[in-house]
Every structure is written in structure tokens, then in C-alpha cells.
Amino acid sequence: MKLSYNILAILLLFQLQVFAQAPQGKRPGGMPGGMPGGNMPQIGRVYGKLLDASTGKPIEYASVALLKQQDSSLITGMLTQGNGDFNFEKLPFGPMIARINFMGYITIYKKVTVTPRATDQDLGNIKMKPNVKELAAVEVTGQKSDFQLGIDKKIFNVDRNLSSVGGTATDVLKNVPAVNVDIDGNVKVRNASPTIFVDGRPSTLTLDQIPADAIESVELITNPSAKYDAEGMSGILNIVLKKNKKAGVNGMIQGGIATGEKYNGSGNINIRQGKVNFFANYSINANRNWGRGETNTTYFQPGKDTSYQDQSSNSISKGSFQFGRAGLDYFIDNRNTISLSQNIVAGNFKNTEDLRTVSSNYNKDPLMENLRNSISEFEFRNYTTQLGWKHTYAKPKKEWTADFSLSKSNNSRDGDIYTDYLDGAGNTTLPSSFQYQRTKGSSTFGSLQTDFVNPVSENGKLEFGLKGTYRDYSSDYKVFDRDNDSGEDIYNDRLSSAYKYNEQIYAGYVNFSNSIGNFGYQAGLRAEQYIYAGESAGVKYKPTKAVPGLYPSVYLSQRLKNEQELQLNYSRRVNRPNFFQLIPYRDFTDPYNQREGNPNLKPEYTNSFEFSYMKTWKQHNFLASVYFRNTNNMISTYTEPIQGDSMLTRFVNANRSNSYGAELTLKNQLFKIWSLTTNVNLFQTDLSINTNNEQSQNSGFSWLAKINSEVKLPWNFTFQQNYQYQADAIALPSSGGGGRGYMMIPTSTQGTIKGYHTLDLSIKKDFLKNKALSVTLTWSDVFDTREFGMDLATASYKQSSYRKRESEIGRLNISYRFGKMDMQLFKRKSNKGENGMGDIQAF
């Protein structure tokens, strides 16, 4: 613990010192303002429409030329079409001048800058007048960064994260600052569960079903505005999948192996020609993982001696999943685009587990032993279709979009359980039992939304939209016990269950933002109508009333001198109980640790406040936030002993929960070859539950730190290090954001989660003249320290649990890129012609 504190303090002090010492002249790339020097990729696009100022009719056959700003030399040119449209593609990055002339009209000059962050530039409807000289319009945008810090959003471009190569979205999020992922894939931000989106929409996919190689970036919105869904205690995590729009043909193939019988392979391709942009990718990921765990419980029963129960488990999981995605964009004209994409995900897994349970008396003499071996096979399929339309206007930043998404999933699980019953001396007391389980489930999730953005002044805009979502889920769980005498399989109606549920959310929002000088403001209001209905064993449940909820948000910002900014914001959010928390069915899968839903659960409501300060240097970024989060009716769990040596965990609403803390993020380009990102989150949580007329409270302070380092070495080597330290923290539920859908870790006001630390190391070597071939070697959890531990304590029992999954893994991956170059990976070939428009190939 002291060593981790010392390391963190030294790094923070070191980074703060280099702010004043680092070079303040040129940015990486060799040119002021961050514009890369030398030859650049040709993936830019500039377009617009020419109109007669007096009649409004399009002007055909006008001459439009693009010139270099530096020396006015010609880059390329064309004549306008019959509808007045012009469109330039395959443009290099940098500042240009658009020269527009036609007989009888005054020549127009417009300045335009194409950058990696803004490859498409719309010059709008350009009106040509005789004898009138128009002023040039100037637009300058910044460079894309691997890590972009904003007051309201943080964007992590994870395609350069070496430690997650060949893994899944879970591995990606482990290395994102401010995000904590436990060994079950449950995700937390600021010690609470965020809402997980994929491409801006809720998804039925789990994090383990999304390959890391398909992810372009992760957006973290800690305090969303009214434009976003109100669901989620700590904001939104949006996973953005890769989608290329480069002209021509380009793509990548990749393959890798890892220790412990693991392998992966993937490929993607993008083809853009004329009005059509087609993209596709495919990934396969297969692995074998082991797990082990221990749970030790001490029971204090009034009038009885203390007793003990010890459980130990060992498990092995084998399986594979495949991820396929294809889609296209059709550019109807310069301002109308239709997009269609289809995802198909399939997986098959086989799990085996040995569970040993020993019950002992007050002297810890074994009284009874239970040996259970289970074998299960799990299969799932997911199909997601997305259709979108986008219309932009000649007025800058004015747009109208409409999106439709439909996702259908089905799954099945077959399990066999063999159990032996022994006495304390190891002798058989009861005949062995055999039980098998058959489960089938399906779900449908659909959403339809439309958004409109209209600038109302130079800095102001009005946004409004509508959205509707629909989810339908059903499951049929059957359990059969085999009679030892007759060999007949008998249906067990006590353990079996069949249930289904349906939920609908209808929402509308309005947002208005503007600025007065250096002061900016935004106010919004979202209304959501939530409708839920469930059925289990023929009994229907409607625990929530269809009452609309209002969710306001307010943002205030003040820009200061020397690239500084302050912001204060507020939002109200909701976290609704899911079906598995609501149904009163009791899960006897582990008879010693039973679980049961609560149909009387209420939604939890959170009021979130955040104050932020951001400072930007030429090669450094610093963001500090302090936040306060008050939650009423917080959904938690409560565990109590039943039947002597068994435990029952139920879902309950806490009276209240208050969380407050501070988050510090530093991104430094310390030297030309070394960049460092450090994130520290300090938080305090207070939780109170009133159950069975007993008051239960828990509170505690904790902190999380992540350090991501990248060093550029000679001979095209890159070395990355990712270190994370999580201190002890009070246990909070992880519903809604987990990597495995409805799974929840057994947490409550009674528990404390033990801290851990982990270190990942990666090194990459680029080959070939254009660095098209790369070899990456990764060693995750170098010291094998990533594990889960928790302590529970009440007046009637205390429990200590430990679980570990395979985390020390070595991976070797090889990738090859082809087609159009990527500015971060290739160097453009020289002498491609006077206008620099030659195609660039990686082979």
C-alpha cells in the first residue's frame, strides 16, 4: 500500500513539474499548432453548391479550383454539375483556398482546412453575385489525439492500445482512465454503474462478445445532458465501432495466439467509390480460461454453538465466438446520406466446475461434505440491424438525423450436475444424485429516434428529438432429477421457472445552448415514459406505474485566459430495476447461497453535480473534477442466513446513498518519445438500508489510480505500460453495466471489496518501409495479482470470499494493413505527381 502511494505521488509531482519545463514551440509532427509536417495522407473531402444570388437557381459549369494557401499552386479543380454541386475527394491535409469563378460573376475565394479530425468540409450554398465581393470564410479545426479531453466528454481512441490487441471490449475498458472492470466484467465509473452503449445505442451484446479489434474509440460522458438517455447512475460509456470512409480500397488482416490455448483472427476492408462506401469486418476469438474461488463463513446463532462452512471451487471454460459486421453508406447527394449495417455474433462455450462444500462444528471438525461436479454448454446468437439517414443543410452545423435499430438474440444452455454426499470421515451418507438443466431464452430490442439541430446564432443552437425503445425477453428454465431406483427423470417444478417481460420507454428532449462572450450555458429537459410488465409461473407483475419522469440538466462554463476553462453542471438520472431483480423466483442453483428477486423494488433516482477545471498546454492537458451524487431508493442487496448453513441474498431499496469525490486526469507529452496519462479518482460513499426494522449502514473512502505510458524506441519499437491500483472499497451493486448482462456481484451495505493492483506490458515492432506490418507482444497482469475478494459481516454471520480468474496471459499478434495509408502508421510515398494526388498502397 505505501509503495503504491509513493509511486503515484512521485509520478504526479514529476508531471506537474514538466508543465513549465516542456518545449512550448512546435507540437509533435514538426509544425506549429500541431499540423504534421512532410507529406500527408489524401483522405480529405471538400464539397458545396453554387447558386445564383438573385434567382436561387444552381449554376452549372462554373470553375472551382483548390489552391495551396502557401504558394497558391493548383491542387485540383472541376466544373460544377447541373444542380450546382461540386465535390473533391482524395485531398491532402492542410490549409487550402477554394477559388470559384464563372463568366458574369465576381470570383469568390474561401479558405478551408482539412485535418485528421475534420476530413469532410461542407462549404454550404455559395451564392454568386455580380459586382459584389464576398469575404473569405475561415475554418480551422484541431488535430485528432489518442486521448481527447473535454469538459463534458472524454474520448479515448483505443486503436493504439497494445495491451488489448486480440482481446475483447472488457480488455479495452480495463485500460480506459476512470473506468474500473472487475473479474466478472462488471463496469464501474466513479464507483457506480454507467449505461453501456454501442454506436450510441443500447445493445443486447455483452462486453465479452465485442472484439477489441472492432473498436475505434470509447466515449465517457460522466454527467450527460438531456439529449442522452436518463438511465445510468454514473453516466454513459459509448463504444464506437470502426467504420472507415477513406476513398479507394483499404483494410487490415490480423491473427494471434496466447498462452493457455487461446487464439484470435480478424480482418476488415473498406471500399469507397463514387456515391457508395462499403465496409466489413470479421473476427474470431477462441480461448480456454480457468477460475478458482473460496468462501469461508462463520455462523453465530443465538442459543447455539458457532458453526463453519467452507466452499472451494475450480472451473474451466472453453469456447469461441465470432463477430461479423458489414454495412454501407450511400451518398444521395452532398447533403443526404443513408447508412445501413448488419451485425452477426455467435458463440459456443463449455464450462466445467468442481465445487466442494464442508460444514464444521464449533471445533471446526467436519460434519458433512458435499462434492458437486457440473458440466454445461452455452450457445448464443445475436443479429443487429441499423438504418440511418442524415441530412445536412447549407447553414453550418444544422442537421436532421433519423435512426432505427433492431436487435434479436437467442440462447440455450444445457447443464448436468453430479453430486456426492459424504460425512465428516469421507464416507458416503446418501446416494449420489444426478440433475440436468435445459434453458432457452430469446430477446428482441428495438429503438427509433430522430434528432434535429438548428443553430440560432453564431454560438447558440437549439436541439430537440424523440426516441422510442422496446425490449421483449423470455426464458424457459427446466430442471430434471434422476430417480436412482427407476432411472426415470422427474421434472422439478420447485427449481424450474418460465418467465417473460416487456418494457417500453418513450422519450423526448429539448436542449438550448448559447454563449455571451466567454460565458457559455446550456439547459435541457428530458421526459421519459417507462412501461413495464412481467410474468413468471403464470403470475403477472407490474411493479412500476406508467408515470412520466422529468430529467433536467444544466451546464455553465467560463473560459479563462491561457487556455483555461471552468464548468458547473447538474443532471437528474434514473436506474430502473431489471427483470432478474424483480421476479420473486428463488435461485437454488447453489443451495448454500440462494438468491431471490423482489417485485416491490422501486427505481432509484440520482441527482448529480459536477464542477470541473481544464487547462490546456501545447503538449499537455489537465482536467480536475469534483462531484457529488445523491441517490434515493438505491438498489442494493441484503444477505442473511437461513436454514442454519445457507445464505439468502435479496434485492432491496436503500434509504439513501451519497457519493462524492474528485477525479484528476493528466496527459503529458513529456518528451518527444514519451507520453504519459495518469488518472486518479478519490471517492467517499455513504449507504443506509432499513430492512426488517433493522438499520444497516456502511461508509468508506477509496481511491483508484491508472497510469498509461507509451515510449517510442529506436528501430520502430513502441513500448506501453498500463498500471492500475484499486484500494479497498465498500461494496455497491453493479447492475446495468456488467459485461454479462444481468449478473451482479453479491454486494450490499454489509460488505467491503478488497483492493488489488495489476500491471500490463506491451511492445510492438513495425516492419516494412511504410510500417504496414506490425508484431505486438503483450503480457497482461505481469505479477498475477488481479483477483476479487470481499468481506461481509453482520451480527449473525461473517463471510470472507475470494475468486480468481486466469489473468496472467501472454499474447502474440501480427497485423498487416493494405490499401490507403493511415497517417499514424504510414509515410506517404514521394513523387506522386505535381498535385500529390497519386494513390498510396501498402504493398
UniProtKB/TrEMBL annotation:
The lineage of its organism: Bacteria, Pseudomonadati, Bacteroidota, Chitinophagia, Chitinophagales. Residues 168-236 form the TonB-dependent receptor plug domain. Residues 391-816 form the Outer membrane protein beta-barrel domain. Keywords: Cell outer membrane, Membrane, Receptor, Signal. Its main location: membrane. This is TonB-dependent receptor. The keyword Chloroplast does not apply. Residues 1-20 form the signal peptide. It comes from the Bacteria. InterPro entries: Beta-barrel_TonB_sf (IPR036942), CarboxyPept-like_regulatory (IPR008969), OMP_b-brl_3 (IPR041700), Plug_dom (IPR012910), Plug_dom_sf (IPR037066). SUPFAM superfamilies: Carboxypeptidase regulatory domain-like (SSF49464), Porins (SSF56935). Pfam families: CarboxypepD_reg, OMP_b-brl_3, Plug. GO terms for cellular component: cell outer membrane. It is found in: Cell outer membrane.
